[in-house]
Amino acid sequence: MFKKFFLILTFLIIYPILSYAEKIIVFEFTEEEKKILKVRKVKKKTTYTIGSNDNGNFLKAEAKGKASGLGIEKKINLLKTPFLNITWKVEKDLSGINEQSKKGHDYAARVFVVKKTGATALSNRAINYVFSSNNPVDKYWRSPYTKKSIDYVLSTTKDNFNEWVSVKANVKEDFKKLHNLDLKEIDGIAIMTDTDNSKKLAIAYYQNIYFSSE
């Protein structure tokens, strides 16, 4: 009886540690973190501000004719934690644009995952998980600007307009399916809200972005 109790007690003590090890938080969404994130500007800087609610800190993004992202170089072991988890919301979307064209290639919310596959940024492979304003979930296509980046719809304002929604993607499987790459790890993650092509106004929120084992 004592042995059984000891085993249960040991499991309860170790389990939270194991659970924590299988969850890799990408962004903390604090003012301190925001200062050290890498900014990739395409055209004028998107306005990013920190806020909080009952579920913790979030990042609010607002862009009108602007396009810049916030990113971090961080190796993620896809053998241990292949699932990307995102909680996000779009308050003002970009309905009516052709997201598969250069003139309409804007998203109210997107999260990039990047694998370095060469010496320059242009040689990298990426999956661009998006909160679409015009296309259904699970639809995907190559970016009109580079064949090495795939846009993949995880959420759409057709179903979830101005409400928080949590989504999950198996990044390892998606790189295999979309790029025919069998990866052990990725090298970076970035967030971007952009409207430099459409010149419209987009407002979005990001929260609880992390990788998990399941």
Task: Explain what you see.
With 214 residues, the chain is of the alpha+beta class. It has a single domain (26-212), classed as Galactose-binding domain-like (Jelly Rolls). 16% of the residues lie in helices and 48% in strands. It has a seven-stranded mixed beta sheet. Strands 1, 3, 4, 6, 11 and 13 form a six-stranded antiparallel beta sheet that branches. The protein is globular. The model is unreliable at 1-20 (pLDDT under 50).
Brief descriptors of the model:
disordered N terminus, alpha+beta, 6-stranded antiparallel sheet, 7-stranded mixed sheet, 3 helices, about 210 residues, about 50% strand, Jelly Rolls
Tally of alpha and pi helices: 3
Topology pattern, helix = H, strand = E: HEHEEEEEEEEEEHEE
**Main sheet, how many strands, which sense, barrel?**
7 strands, mixed
Q: CATH homologous superfamily, by name?
A: Galactose-binding domain-like
Spatial order of strands in the largest sheet: 2-5-12-7-8-10-9
